[in-house]
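User: I'm putting together a teaching handout on how sequence relates to shape, and I'd like one worked example. Could you take Stress induced hydrophobic peptide from Desulfotalea psychrophila, show the sequence you're using, and then write out its predicted structure as tokens right after it?

Assistant: Happy to. First the sequence, then the structure tokens directly below it.
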Amino acid sequence: MRHRDTSMELIKIICAIILPPLGAFLQVGIGKHFWINIILTLCGYIPGIVHAVWVVAKNK
């Protein structure tokens, strides 16, 4: 079970780097952090990545 959890977290982080809103969505669904991430990604790709990785890491 632990291996599966680690694999899923890795997939979420990769999604957060490639497509930040998807990484945030996979972790928290359509909520406050998802919409914040959409706005940050539209303002700049790097802020969106930072926020998405933070959301994935924070909500383990």
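A couple of points you could highlight for students: The chain has a mean pLDDT of 91. The two ends are 15 Å apart (CA to CA).
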